[in-house]
Design goal:
Distance between the termini of chain B: 41 Å
Helix content of chain B: 25-40%
Oligomer: heterodimer
CATH superfamily of the largest domain in chain B: Phenylalanyl-trna Synthetase, Chain B, domain 3
Distance between the termini of chain A: 41 Å
Shape of chain B: elongated
Radius of gyration of chain A: 42 Å
Number of helices of chain B: 15
Shape of chain A: elongated
CATH architecture of one domain in chain A: 2-Layer Sandwich
Largest sheet of chain B: 10 strands, mixed
Largest interface: A-B, 96 and 92 residues
Structural class of chain A: alpha+beta
Number of domains of chain B: 4
Strand content of chain A: 15-25%
Largest sheet of chain A: 7 strands, mixed
Number of helices of chain A: 21
CATH topology of one domain in chain A: BirA Bifunctional Protein, domain 2
CATH superfamily of one domain in chain A: Bira Bifunctional Protein, Domain 2
CATH class of one domain in chain A: Alpha Beta
């Protein structure tokens, strides 16, 4: 059995006296308390000793006690001054009056002083105390050095207790180490003490001293202190995974304004100006700055026409300028339609969108949308299904299904759901569809545009079994540091 | 979107076929009416905004009946010639310009009809009617009043009547102030000097739209003939809703009778015809549909087909052009039967250059052992400025925040990171965190008057966090980015004096104790923030 140097010391000490407290072991081995505790725990785990724990009271020095130990009791300080007799006033010049008062009380109790003609004078006993310890000093030192206070001194200790702020009584757990039968057997086989070194040093290597030392064997199976490395936020990991899947599939990443004009966020997407989604309780409008520049004239005219012919109302160009916190990244993909130079086009964005929601366990006022479009003359609804199926299967969701839905800017419109194997349930992710002619024609596109805008946070919530969406943005280090997926 | 409640047995009864609940839910959702919950015989169904005709069990059953093949094809609705007249006075033009009406005869008023009637009214008001502003419906017992009726605008105190649910007469002003519906909907008449009213030949009040009907024309179980009025701001919307409502009664076996409203005869239940080219189905959906199959699929969705023209039922107002019909054909075909196709549209993918740079910064900072966090962009002035002892600067302010937490958009990331440190005091230190994220600055030169800037912020919190250790990271980051950095000492309000500096597009320093106290952070924090682009 491998034993460390300290363990061997303890066993050898216990061989002489098979049952010892920690304090006794400190004495008998000369090791520091922490080493004794650690080594005896290991010995116990090897069943070489038994450890019993008893709750006991321990006396320690309080602040006055600490002071007296270092600078002497008041009575000692006064005693030293009284080598020549002095008046109280004279003593007060050297020490504070309070200290002098306390000192005199105690010196009197020891019959060490007497008063003659208004002066304090040492008695015979007092003279003796100049050469030897007073009883209180003996007790204080015993306690300071954690020694046992003898019965004769018990009364003295009571005095000290009463003086206040000198001693403090604390409960502690006393450990008693006792050799087991196995421990005794091991000792019988003989324990050889060698000098062990824990750290190999450059010096030992340079001088060759390493040949003369034994490197202590470690408890290699013990768990090490916790360290946390740096890593991505769990949601960023998911976002990056989705971005790389898009890129593998040939999609180009795009970005667009976060503070967006109503024109690109709503009007260009054929959302009528009285549509509920444009209302103040759903969309964040800005107070400052308030209005965007006018969009290019040709788009303005085309969009006005699309709205007035399609929805049959008077379209107001002024409301199209109102700035909003973009409610979907479809505003960004919509802008992209004006930049098309050749087909096919495949672009994506995974970015922040905003809704005027109150933060609660399932609503966020800002969240990520996973957005993509494919533009091609040959692109159709079944190709949209194919792209989404491919995308989510690469993320580990094998089953994707589509249900009829409605959005003002797509026709057909579908609801996208992915199957979550672990929960055996379908999860709604968001909408997809083919952009309406009313959207693409005014922007100069003569092709089908497959589009989707899906929730970013929801798959993470499902995968990590998060009940509360706020966890993602709370950044509790307890979660971030320990989550692994 | 609206949620309606229907009775399973009633739905099957009206659709003419008993379908097992699970199967029914599946069929409904593949038709576009998603079943959200089933409690016993109660089914809760989500109705899409383009299908207001599904806001009643009758309308839903009508579509189900064709969809599951019980009786496919177009259902035409007829109305008999008008006997009732509504005169429209010019005075309504400035307050609530449009009114449409219809009469329903021989109706059997029972519990289920009343429930369905109330539900469709409420749901139409809510969505289609934009909370009664755009459309409001009144349904009356026709026998209590006499034609001709008049729709006119009157002064708020000119007319009094007993509103529904009351037993005393009130004038219009009093109704807006005291009747519960008056209080709820007074906003729809805000700023008006005159209010709309419908009266009969004798001056008896049918309705004070869009607020409340008169008690006089309350509908009881004995009622057999109904008068329907719809008023609002969009004539198109009113006619669409009127058709939906009268068809619902007709499906219950009642007879629709036209009404002369001004110089129009309503409702107009004629079938709209639009050309359809089945070859275009393939172009949009990706599956070939023959003429014959196309016809069958249209009929499944309640259409008829005459030659090259689809015949669209009178209750469908959402069909703007061919694509809308093609969507219906795809739904009839079944989305579950549309096989996803993996077409390669050849393009080259790639990261946005700015995001690629942000990725590089993240990677470098993680290499230095820092933990990434993600925080919100919306914040408020207290957290963003006051706690950092900063004066409020130019920023995007939110006009209509629901809470005090979201009154502005961040211009820097540091306050968010300090808040995270504040929330993680019980976690093990050191806490060395970073965020790479967007902030928004006001910029008049931009089309949207704002510019998104990508920033990186690092905070090091530990009992011995200090300027030098953090500067090592900053300099290391610049080394990774292949850039030079030169800092120049500069005191910042939120940093310890003499322990902060600035560099091109950023700052670094030790956070001042007063700021730490405001964030309730118990350990020293050193930090830097820089703009990436």
């Amino acid at each position: 059995m491998a034993l460390s140097e300290y363990e061997k010391h303890i066993l050898l000490a216990l061989e002489k006296k098979p049952k010892q407290t920690t304090l006794e072991l400190i004495d008998s081995t000369g090791l520091p308390e922490a080493s004794i505790n650690r080594a005896s725990t290991w010995l116990a785990s090897k069943e070489l000793i038994d450890i019993k724990e008893n709750v006991k009271e321990r006396i320690e020095l309080d602040f006055e006690g600490t002071d007296y130990l270092a600078n002497g009791f008041p009575e000692r300080r006064v005693l030293e001054l009284l080598k020549e007799s002095k008046t109280i006033a004279e003593l007060d010049d050297s020490l504070s009056h309070d200290i002098v008062k306390i000192a005199i009380v105690w010196l009197k109790k020891l019959n060490a002083v007497s008063i003659k003609e208004g002066k304090l004078e040492l008695t015979k006993a007092g003279q003796d105390y100049l050469k030897k310890r007073m009883p209180q000093e003996t007790v204080l030192e015993l306690i300071a050095h954690k020694k046992v206070v003898s019965k004769e001194m018990a009364q003295e200790m009571d005095h000290l207790k009463k003086r206040g702020s000198i001693l403090e009584f604390k409960e502690y757990t006393e450990r008693v180490m006792e050799l087991t039968f196995r421990g005794k057997e091991i000792i019988k086989k003989g324990i050889v003490l060698e000098k062990e070194i824990s750290q190999l040093t450059p010096d030992m290597l340079a001088t060759g001293k390493w040949r003369d030392v034994k490197l202590r064997e470690y408890e290699v199976e013990v768990s090490a202190p916790v360290v946390y490395g740096g890593k991505k936020h769990p949601f960023r990991k998911m976002i990056d995974k989705m971005r790389s899947v898009f890129i593998e599939m040939g999609f180009r990443e795009i970005k667009g304004p976060i503070v967006e004009s109503s024109f690109w966020n709503f009007d260009a997407l054929f959302v009528p100006q009285d549509h509920p989604s444009r209302e103040m309780q759903d969309t964040f409008y800005t107070k400052e700055p308030k209005e965007a520049d006018k969009p290019p004239e040709k788009y303005l005219e085309n969009i006005k026409k699309a709205h007035e012919e399609g929805w049959k109302y008077k379209w107001n160009p002024k409301s199209a300028l109102e700035l909003v916190m973009r409610t979907h990244t479809t505003a960004t993909t919509c802008r992209e339609l004006t930049k098309v130079k050749g087909l096919p086009v495949k672009v994506f964005s995974i970015d922040k969108v905003f809704r005027n929601e109150v933060l609660d366990y399932k609503h966020l006022p800002e969240f990520y949308q996973v957005e993509g479009i494919v533009i091609d003359k040959e692109a159709t609804l079944v190709d949209l299904f194919g792209v989404l199926q491919e995308f989510y299967s690469r993320l580990g969701f094998e089953k994707v299904r589509f249900k009829p839905s409605y959005f003002p800017y797509t026709e057909p419109s579908v609801e996208v759901e992915i199957y979550f194997e672990k929960k055996k349930s379908w999860l709604e992710l968001g909408g997809a569809g083919v952009f309406r002619k009313e959207v693409v024609k005014p922007l100069g596109i003569d092709a089908n545009v497959l589009a989707w805008g899906l929730g970013g946070e929801r798959p993470l919530m499902i995968m990590d079994e998060l009940e509360d969406i706020r966890i993602i943005y709370k950044n509790s280090l307890g979660w971030i540091r320990n989550v692994n997926d | 979107m609206s949620m309606i409640e229907v009775d399973y047995n009633e739905l099957c009864g009206l659709a003419g076929k008993k379908v097992e609940k699970d199967k029914l839910a599946e069929r409904l959702s593949m038709m576009g009416a998603s079943v959200e919950d089933v409690q016993g015989d109660k089914m809760f169904i989500e109705v899409l905004p383009n299908r207001p005709d599904w806001l009643s069990v009758e309308g839903l059953a009508r579509s189900l009946k064709t969809f599951i093949g019980v009786e496919p094809g177009l259902r035409e609705y007829k109305a008999s010639e008008p006997k009732i007249e509504v005169r429209v006075d010019k005075s309504v033009e400035i307050v609530r310009p449009y009114i449409v009406c219809a009469v329903i005869r021989n109706v059997k008023v029972d519990d289920s009809l009343i429930r369905s009637m109330m539900q469709i009214q409420e749901k139409l008001h809510e969505t289609f009617g934009r909370k009664r502003k755009k459309l409001a419906i009144g349904i009356h017992d026709l026998s209590k009043v006499q034609s001709p009726f008049t729709y006119k605008a009157v002064k708020p105190t000119e007319i009094s009547f007993v509103p529904l649910g009351m037993n005393i007469a009130m004038n219009l002003k009093e109704i807006l102030e005291r009747h519960p519906k008056g209080i709820d909907y007074a906003w729809t008449l805000e700023g008006a000097d005159v209010y709309p009213i419908i009266t009969d030949k004798n001056g008896d009040v049918l309705s004070f739209p869009p607020i409340i009907n008169g008690e006089l024309t309350r509908v009881y179980e004995e009622t057999t003939d109904l008068f329907i009025d719809m008023t609002g701001s969009s004539e198109k919307t009113l006619n669409e809703a009127l058709n939906i409502l009268v068809c619902m009664f007709a499906d219950r076996g009642a007879r629709i009778e036209k009404v002369k409203v001004g110089n129009r005869i309503l409702p107009d239940l004629s079938v709209l015809e639009k050309e359809i080219e089945f070859a275009n189905v393939e172009k949009l959906v990706g599956v070939k549909v023959s003429q014959e199959e196309g016809k069958r699929l249209l009929e499944r969705m309640g259409y008829g087909l005459a030659g090259k023209k689809a015949r669209i039922p009178c209750y469908r107002s959402d069909i703007l052009h061919e694509d809308d019909m093609i969507e219906d054909i795809a739904i009839a075909y079944g989305y579950e039967n549309l096989k996803p196709r993996r077409t390669i549209f050849p393009t080259i993918g790639g990261k946005h250059p700015e995001e690629a740079m942000a990725d590089g910064v993240r990677e470098a900072l993680i290499g230095f052992g820092l933990q990434e966090v993600m925080t919100f962009m919306l914040t408020n002035e207290e957290k963003h400025y006051h706690r950092l002892l900063l004066k409020e600067g130019r920023r995007v302010e939110i006009a209509n925040p629901k809470t005090k937490e979201t009154t502005m958009v961040r211009t820097s990331l540091l306050p968010g990171l300090l808040e995270i440190l504040s929330g993680n005091k019980h976690e093990k230190y050191p806490q060395n965190l970073f965020e790479v994220g967007d902030a928004i600055v006001v910029d008049e030169k931009e089309e949207t008057k704002t510019r998104t800037v990508k920033k990186a912020c690092v905070v090091c919190a530990d009992s011995n966090a200090n300027y030098t250790a953090t500067k090592s990271i900053l300099e290391g980051l610049f080394r990774e980015l292949g850039k030079k950095i030169e800092v120049k000492g500069k005191d910042l309000p939120f940093m310890i004096k003499g322990r902060s500096s600035e560099f091109a597009h950023g700052y670094i320093g030790e956070v001042g104790p007063e700021v730490l106290a405001k964030f309730e952070i118990d350990v020293p924090v050193s930090c830097f923030e820089l703009e990436l682009y």
